[in-house]
Write a structure and sequence with these properties.
Length: about 625
């Protein structure tokens, strides 16, 4: 027997329309901007705003729990996926809204003592979804949760393009087709595109179907910046869309894990309303850093590799004066000094020792001081995560600091600059270890002592969170790393350095909003900052259909954020210069290889043959075009 009741809570401005206890009947709650219902088909939304897409649930799973044996690595097999379908899910009305409860999970063969609770309530103009995962199953760990999963979104991307927080923003105004799927990827019976947060592929925790007069906002208001993926899906069988949040979590036996609030918001007006909603919440967590005036007013930088991976010295410390001349001629305020240490670029990390071959520590100090006297600011490079395998540091300390994956092996990256020189292999330092923090802080203190104006921790704004199964790192095993821990890691260093020198800044490569309170400027290496052709830039600036990059998304949400563009060539074309100005980026040109040096010092235009051994070449056609 299903009890029925109708209650009104005037102060909250919403209505509880029905109160079933179990079964297939819908429970509905009404807010100022629409009515949300939960039933056996999933979550539906009848928006009160005509320009907001409706959600008509189709019976697909609302959530999924991933479980795996709680064993030391290597962990065999794939995680078991358990969805709400076929589970003993109870739907009930509460004083605040709707509660969905599942006390145990099964796959038809066995049962796990793992429970899921989902709470849905109106809050302001939005509907908020929270919940908890309970794991009382001995010998098993929850290793992921996907939910809420919204399906049956009635949208036409031509009228309601998807805004996805990839890099500075991606706009999708065409559904994938059999002949043209990119950037969507195949998923089940349809297609999917994701933004993995926090990383350069997922820079904020919101996305939207954004029409000209209204739209649908999905945001995760997670103040801890935990690992997650925002996913948009397309079902070509009925041309509907879906949204899902995939939480990358670990919940051990005996654990209780609270799910961060997810908000579904029908909104009126342009997409700017959705951005303002997210920013209003973000400001309750942390405000973007107020950088020193010299950084805030900087036009951009000359990124210069002094010594390459193969040991070739391109600029020594005594030639920094000439670099200042080059920067002066191009209106650049900052010298970004890469490969400044004894190992060169991408070699012997994380040891960065002033190089006797380039002049030694005293010559470097004098050169940095002279650059400051000329009005230039200098940033010294340090990679924030790489440690080269086989070095003394690796053998004596680094192995124990390395991220260990599900397979029990160190997480590794390889960088190879020249065909006639060997590649270099690196392990990733775990940001939860005290030893890695100590080494990175030492490098910032050293940079300040040498007279630099800041430090760049390369790659700390680039990579997605990852699991670490290592013992002795100061985190539970396993744990997701490069997520909340990265926020704390960078903040501790930035706070320490501001206490020493308020004018010293911390930079990183990539972008994500979780570190805006610590990072004064980003080295742009993310979607929306890469070099583009004049035709592509014109399409972006005109807002024409098919322009994938949408830098307005991040720039409007966080206008204070400063980032260079990425131009791995020793010059910039007119179109890219205009694009940089139009979106408030900072300029960049790069001197990476010997022909680049001759171009900058002697105006000698290089031939392609001069880069024969270089694997990642600059834009040679651009260099030869003027």
């Amino acid at each position: 027997m299903i009890a029925k009741n109708t209650a009104m809570v005037v102060g909250l401005g919403w209505f509880l329309l029905s109160m079933p206890t179990e079964g297939g009947e819908a429970i509905r709650v009404k807010g100022p901007k629409g009515e949300l219902q939960a039933d056996a088909q999933g979550i539906g939304l009848a928006p009160a705003i005509a320009a907001c897409p409706a959600i008509r649930a189709k019976g697909d799973p609302l959530w999924a729990v991933l479980v795996q044996p709680d064993t030391p690595p290597p962990v065999g097999g794939e995680p078991i996926v358990l969805t709400d379908q076929g589970q003993p899910v109870t739907r009930a009305a509460t004083a605040e809204g709707i509660r969905l409860t599942c006390g145990t999970l099964g796959d038809g063969k066995r049962t796990w003592d793992i429970g899921v609770t989902i709470d849905i309530r109106p809050t302001g103009d939005a509907f908020e979804i929270t919940g908890e995962i309970r794991n009382d199953e001995k010998g098993w760990v929850v290793c992921g949760f996907t939910g809420p999963v919204l399906h049956g979104i009635q949208a036409d991307l031509a009228a309601h393009p998807v805004l996805l927080p990839e890099g500075f923003g991606r706009r999708l105004d065409r559904a994938p087709t059999a002949g043209k799927t990119a950037p969507w990827k195949a998923w089940g019976r349809g297609f999917e595109i994701s933004a993995d947060y926090p990383s350069r592929r997922g820079t904020m925790q919101w996305c939207a179907f954004a029409g000209k007069q209204g739209g649908l906002y999905l945001g995760c208001h997670d103040a801890t910046h935990s690992a997650k993926s925002l996913r948009v899906r397309h079902d070509p069988s009925d041309n509907t869309f879906g949204m899902a949040l995939k939480h990358q979590i670990f919940c051990p036996t005996g654990g209780r894990l609270s799910l961060p609030p997810t908000l579904i918001l029908p909104y009126e007006g342009t997409w700017h309303a959705a951005a303002r909603h997210y920013r209003a919440w973000a400001d309750t967590v942390a405000r973007p850093i107020d950088p020193p005036a010299w950084a805030r007013d900087a036009s951009g930088w000359l990124l210069c590799i002094l010594k390459q991976q193969n040991g070739e010295v391109l600029w020594d410390y005594h030639s920094l004066g000439k670099l200042c001349d080059v920067a002066d001629a191009r209106g650049l305020d900052i010298l970004g000094l890469f490969g400044w240490a004894h190992g060169g670029h991408d070699h012997l990390y994380p040891d960065y020792i002033p190089d006797p071959e380039m002049g030694g520590a005293d010559a470097l100090r004098k050169a940095l001081k002279a650059a400051r006297h000329r009005g230039k600011r200098t940033i010294l490079y340090a990679n924030g995560q790489l440690q080269e395998i086989g070095t003394e540091f690796w053998e004596t300390r680094g192995k124990a600091l390395t991220v260990i994956g599900r397979d029990g092996a160190p997480t590794k990256l390889t960088y190879h600059k020249y065909r006639n020189a060997p590649p270099r292999h690196f392990g990733l330092g775990c940001l939860m270890t005290q030893g890695w923090y100590d080494r990175m802080l030492e490098l910032a203190v050293q940079a300040d002592d040498l007279g630099a104006d800041g430090i760049l921790y390369d790659q700390l704004g680039i990579y997605e969170p990852m699991p670490c199964y290592a013992q002795g790192h100061g985190h539970p095993v396993p744990s997701m790393v490069y997520a909340s821990d990265r926020v704390r890691f960078i903040r501790r260093i930035a706070d320490h350095m501001r206490a020493i020198d308020p004018d010293f800044i911390v930079m990183t490569e990539g972008l994500h909003d979780s570190v805006l309170d610590s990072i004064a400027m980003f080295h742009g290496c993310t979607f929306g900052t890469f070099e583009a052709s004049p035709g592509e830039i014109l399409t972006r600036l005109s807002g024409a259909s098919g322009a994938p990059a949408f830098p307005e998304m991040f720039r409007y949400t966080f206008p204070e954020a400063m980032s260079t563009i990425r131009m791995p060539t020793p010059m910039m074309g007119r179109a890219m210069a205009n694009y940089t100005c139009a979106y408030g980026f900072r300029f960049e040109i790069e001197s990476r290889y010997a022909p680049d040096v001759r171009y900058l010092r002697e105006d000698i235009v290089p031939d392609a043959a001069e880069y024969a051994d270089v694997i990642s070449k600059p834009n040679i056609a651009l260099l030869q075009s003027v």
